[in-house]
Amino acid sequence: MDPKLQGPAVANTTKRYLFAFSSFLFACLLAFILQIFFFSSISPDPLELPPAAASNSLYPTNNHLQSVIKMGEGFLKDPEGVCVDKEGILYTATRDGWIKRLHKNGSLENWKMIESHTLLGITTTMAGDLLVCDCEKGVLKVGEDGVTVLASHVKGSKIRFADDVIEASDGSVYFSVASTKFELHDWYLDVLEAKPHGQLLKYNPSSNETSILLDNLCFANGVALSGDQDYLVVCETWKFRCLKYWLKGELEGKTEIFTDNLPGGPDNINLAPDGSFWIALLQVF
Ligand SMILES: *[C@@H]1O[C@H](CO)[C@@H](O)[C@H](O)[C@H]1NC(C)=O
Ligand SMILES: *[C@@H]1O[C@H](CO)[C@@H](O)[C@H](O)[C@H]1NC(C)=O
Question: Which InterPro entries match (predicted)?
Answer without folding.
Answer: 6-blade_b-propeller_TolB-like, Strictosidine_synth_cons-reg
